[in-house]
TrEMBL record:
The keyword Zinc-finger does not apply. This is non-specific protein-tyrosine kinase. InterPro entries: AAA_dom (IPR025669), Bact_polysacc_biosynth/exp (IPR050445), LPS_length_determ_N (IPR003856), P-loop_NTPase (IPR027417), Wzc-like_C (IPR005702). Keywords: ATP-binding, Cell inner membrane, Cell membrane, Kinase, Membrane, Nucleotide-binding, Transferase, Transmembrane, Transmembrane helix, Tyrosine-protein kinase. Belongs to the etk/wzc family. One of its GO terms (molecular function) is ATP binding. Its main location: membrane. The chain crosses the membrane at residues 174-195. It is an enzyme of class 2 (transferase). It is found in: Cell inner membrane.
């Protein structure tokens, strides 16, 4: 994935990222709200020599202090110190030595003369009192356990900085927890988004189709709810976006295969529901508008839809001609202004593949190629059945219709391979149902240039308009 792909993924999933970040922040806030606030008070005890002497004695005493400072620190959370502290503060009935020790953090280093005592308690005042009392009791306990020299302990402990009552709780750190929740939720959503994009093999853009096949993307058709109501957009809205997209497809096909005077094109797709019939009909209408004599054949003998889309009688058609039930001219139906001729599917046969593969079908196509400049065959999907592959072998080429966010790369690759294995030619890919807006909006459907409606001048007189026409 390139950097632009990551940006597109983020744009596509911005709602998920935002919701995840807000949920993470809310969960962290709820967790922080349910925590009991704790206040921290700190005090420091300094170890000094109890008597003065020569410089050598001072240096020896300094080394002695550094050697015992960690030992004295270990005494601070022992019953020797904690039991008297509990009695002094009246905590004998409410707190055990272990519970009191858990509230304390003792720090010391054998390179210094300081012992740090930190107490964390729900009550700020009690935290300060415990810290000061522990410091005082530690000094007293050290005097009791230190080896005396001439009646005095060699080391003296004194409080260098008494504990202060905390004004704000040390935990929970609400701003920090909210930040962690926000970043955590965002990171989790980002990982899910990237993984989902990596595992999603659906074709969304022309670049995805190019990664599957070397055949060109002939055009793109935008997603529109109006197509369901009236698929004939080239006729119903000739100046609209969709009509222009089909005309662009027509132009690309003309330049793709300029050496062939007769074109027999199979319109198929990988699976159903990708818009192949709509594409076939509107492409045929666009070619007819350019002056071509177009024949469109409903070669989907399993689920024919062409007659319903064009609103014609589909009772007699291709199957009847192939079995010599009716004459070809009796089955052909002129549609519109006369440049479009339709051959419906007719009755649904029990053996569609055999009929399409028959010699009668081959002879029929040869006859029709002599009468029409362009033949468009609306064929079944390639992957479920072999009908379209059979037709592709006898046609000038096959156009693969691929619905964005519907067809997977594997399905498109298998469909293209199925055509090529029978000796067919894939002209290219047409992407349908492309999003017009959003991160996946394609350049094929991103822009629109429709004619402006004529607007008369306000206050213009009818007589002046008549005079202008007369001139």
């Amino acid at each position: 994935m390139e950097f632009s792909d990551y940006i597109r993924v983020l744009r596509r999933s911005w709602v998920l990222l935002l919701v995840a970040a807000l949920v993470g922040t809310g969960a962290a806030g709820l967790y922080a709200f349910r925590q009991t606030p704790l206040y921290t008070s700190d005090t420091t005890v300094v170890l000094t020599l109890n008597a003065s002497g020569s410089i050598n004695d001072a240096l020896t005493g300094q080394s002695y202090i550094q050697s015992v400072v960690t030992t004295y620190a270990d005494v601070a959370d022992q019953p020797l110190v904690l039991t008297p502290v509990r009695k002094t503060l009246g905590l004998t009935d409410t707190m055990t030595n272990d519970q009191l020790a858990k509230e304390m953090t003792i720090t010391a280093s054998n390179t210094s003369q300081l012992i740090g005592i930190s107490v964390e308690d729900p009550s700020p005042k009690r935290a300060a009192r415990i810290a000061d009392t522990v410091a005082a009791q530690l000094a007293k306990s050290v005097d009791d356990i230190s080896p005396a020299k001439k009646g005095a302990a060699p080391v003296k402990l004194s409080v260098s900085s008494p504990a202060e009552v905390a004004k704000t709780p040390s935990t929970p750190n609400i701003p920090l927890m909210l930040a962690i929740g926000f970043v955590g939720g965002l990171a989790l959503a980002l990982i899910i988004t990237i993984l989902r994009n990596v595992l999603d093999t659906r074709i969304r853009r022309p670049e995805d189709a190019h990664a599957v096949t070397d055949r060109p993307v002939l055009g793109g058709i935008a997603r529109s709810s109006a197509v369901r109501k009236n698929p004939l957009v080239v006729r119903s809205d000739p100046n609209g976006r969709l009509a222009e997209e089909f005309r662009t497809l027509r132009t690309n096909l003309q330049f793709l295969d300029v050496d062939r005077s007769t074109r027999t094109m199979v319109i198929s797709s990988s699976t159903e529901g990708e818009g192949k019939t709509t594409t076939a009909v509107n492409l045929a209408l666009a070619m007819a508008d350019a002056g071509s004599d177009v024949l469109i054949i409903d070669a989907d003998l399993r689920r024919p839809r062409l007659a319903d889309v064009l609103r014609i009688d589909g009772g007699v058609g291709l199957t009847d001609v192939l079995i010599d039930r009716v004459r070809l001219d009796d089955a052909l139906q002129s549609w519109g202004d006369g440049h479009v001729t339709v051959l419906p599917a007719g009755a649904i046969p029990p053996n569609p593949s055999e009929l399409l593969q028959s010699e009668a079908m081959e002879q029929l196509l040869e006859r029709l190629q002599g009468r029409f400049s362009t033949i468009v065959l609306d064929a079944p999907p390639l992957l479920p059945v072999s009908d379209a592959a059979i037709l592709s072998h006898r046609a000038s080429g096959t156009i693969m219709v691929c619905a964005a966010k519907h067809t997977t790369k594997g399905q498109l690759a298998d469909a293209v391979d199925k055509v090529q294995r029978v000796g067919g030619r894939v002209l290219g890919v047409v992407l349908t149902k492309l999003p017009v807006t959003g991160a996946d909006a394609s350049s094929y459907v991103k822009y629109e240039y429709t004619p402006r409606k004529p607007v008369g001048r306000k206050g213009a007189k009818k007589s002046s308009s008549l005079k202008a026409r007369e001139v």
